[in-house]
Amino acid sequence: MGAIWLCWTSPNSVSSGGPHRCFQALVSGQSRSVAELARVKGVSDRYLSSLLPLAFLAPDIVEAIASGRQPADLTAHRLIRTLDLPIAWPAQKQRLGIG
Q1: Which of 41, 42, 86, 88 is the most buried (most CB within 10 A)?
Q2: What is this structure's pTM?
Q3: 41 near 5, Cβ under 8 Å?
Q4: What is the CB neighbour count within 10 angstroms for residue 73?
């Protein structure tokens, strides 16, 4: 599970696949719960839960972040705190200002 977490500690965590790997660890049973994964990594389950929705970001958003083309105000903090991020990719792009 260490490799999963390393992706989330860098500025490029979204583009490096960290949220997908963590989600996969939960789905596959590698980790039994968010609480267990959070405990192993030394963070709160609330914090870890706030990162999981990033596994469902539109590919265009991930590509924009990876290539540095995201809006200046689209920070990691904003992504994590966007609690009502739509599941529909076009709506995500509109909400986050990526066209």
Answers
A1: 41
A2: 0.66
A3: yes
A4: 8
